[in-house]
Recover the amino acids of this structure.
């Protein structure tokens, strides 16, 4: 079932969450251990992230270094299939530009379609750790809008190297990312909204936001979208602070602001357990307010740790 249909059919705000594939070497049970407690809150869909390849250098026998590609968190497609089979809920795989040629992207989409996966979240993806900016894969997509256009064409029966009858095309519901505090590469919010509107025109049907900790940011973002004829559902993305280091790392990595009240509360904590409790309580209040504001879904970034999200959902849903 499509995300957009889940939202249309819902009579109240729904709960969903995002998963990280386990590190290479771990089994599927680690995913089930994260999902099992959260199924109490009846998520209509679960997101599964995709991570681009990175590089390591291995020394060869002759002493020269060999550049080797590897993925730390493989298995997104398989995890989506396992989730749908075990829990009978929809899985939403992330689809990224980095690490894939256009042909590889199309093959992955054909596989997802074959598995009965109805939704994808289209994003550009992050740069590699050693790179200061995003460098596209040769023969791949450079921008999320290009990747989105690729999926939209496949929905119309237009494939890379041949046209197929429209009835044989895919039928993905496409989601995209939104940034209440502006994408860090956009020169200003007006420019960011312009590109978001372009994605909607290309076929995006729902938006999932970057995390934020001040609900006014979400309110203002939704209003700005509506003023610019972006009328698709906007799902707030939420993440609880779970350790004291995050008041520094989250703004740095995700280019977001933390409210003064939140950072001061964390700084006053005597230990990390107190920090976790502050993070959970902040998200509980934030979540309750977003429900009153009419958010269609509350989407939680678990980062591989289900417990804080469980505590929040238990108090909210």
């Amino acid at each position: 079932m499509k995300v957009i249909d889940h939202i249309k059919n819902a009579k109240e705000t729904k709960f969903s969450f995002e998963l990280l594939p386990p590190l290479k070497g771990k089994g599927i049970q680690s995913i089930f251990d994260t999902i099992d407690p959260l199924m109490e809150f009846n998520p209509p869909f679960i997101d599964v992230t995709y991570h681009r390849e990175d590089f390591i250098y291995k020394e060869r026998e002759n002493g020269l270094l060999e550049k080797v590609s590897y993925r730390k968190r493989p298995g997104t497609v398989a995890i989506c299939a396992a989730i749908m089979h075990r829990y009978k809920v929809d899985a939403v795989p992330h689809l990224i530009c980095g690490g894939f040629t256009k042909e590889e992207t199309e093959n992955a989409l054909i596989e997802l379609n074959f598995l009965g996966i109805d939704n994808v979240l289209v994003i550009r993806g992050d740069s590699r750790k050693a790179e200061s900016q995003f460098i596209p894969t040769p023969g791949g997509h450079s921008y999320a809008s290009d990747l989105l256009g690729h999926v939209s064409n496949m929905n119309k029966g237009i494939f890379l190297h041949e046209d197929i009858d429209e009835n044989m095309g895919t039928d993905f519901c496409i989601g995209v990312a939104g940034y209440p505090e502006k994408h860090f590469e956009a020169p200003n919010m007006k420019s960011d909204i312009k590109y978001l509107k372009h994605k909607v025109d290309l076929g995006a049907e729902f938006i999932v936001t970057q995390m934020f900790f001040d609900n006014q940011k979400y309110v203002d973002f939704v209003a700005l979208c509506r003023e610019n004829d972006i009328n698709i559902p906007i799902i707030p993305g939420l993440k609880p602070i779970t350790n004291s280091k995050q008041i520094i790392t989250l703004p740095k990595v995700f280019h977001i602001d933390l409210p003064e009240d939140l950072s001061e509360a964390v700084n006053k904590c005597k230990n990390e357990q107190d920090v976790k409790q502050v993070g959970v309580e902040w998200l509980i209040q934030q979540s309750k307010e977003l429900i009153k504001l009419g958010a269609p879904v509350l989407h939680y970034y678990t980062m591989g740790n289900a417990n804080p999200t469980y505590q929040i959902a238990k108090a909210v849903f």
